[in-house]
Amino acid sequence: xGTQGHSAKYCPEFHIVKGPSMPPPVSQMRNQQPWHPQxxxxxxxxxxxxxxMSDSSTWLVDTGAxxxxxxxxxxxxxxxxxxxxxxxxxxxxxxxxxxxTGSLSIPSYTRPFFLNNVLCVPSLEKNLISVFQLCxxxxxxxxxxxxxxxxxxxxxxxxxxxxxxxxx
Length: 168
Prior knowledge:
This protein is mainly beta. It has one domain. The two termini are 15 Å apart. It has a four-stranded mixed sheet, covered by helices on one side. The protein has one helix and 13 strands, in the order E-E-E-E-E-E-E-E-E-E-H-E-E-E. 5% of the residues lie in helices and 34% in strands.
């Protein structure tokens, strides 16, 4: 939405409408193209696509991110300092330091999505929702088309969230 000072949960542009007939304007979530590494490393590192514009309320739905990530500690409902030595490795090979880990919830049509083990990376310029983590911890599937994305419950097929890409 471009407005600072609130999290996605309290974003005035993020309207939840009951039922799938009128999707909310989900301007803070955008499809990000996946990054495909040219060479594999034997060591595991958190990974993220480079996010190039600063806005703490914008969330990208990212197929290339290994973890949910935010640069703004206030986006996390619960958090603890991170004591590990890992960095988040970007597509260009550079690393960004992790300061905290935590959790948050994001509203949907039926019930909130819970995002656990969210990494706080102060140098990151966009907040990232890892598609893999979202699906594996919330029992959902994410479908992308050229004009929208949908998040559906795996057990019931119920539409839980829908959005349109903004600026590709």
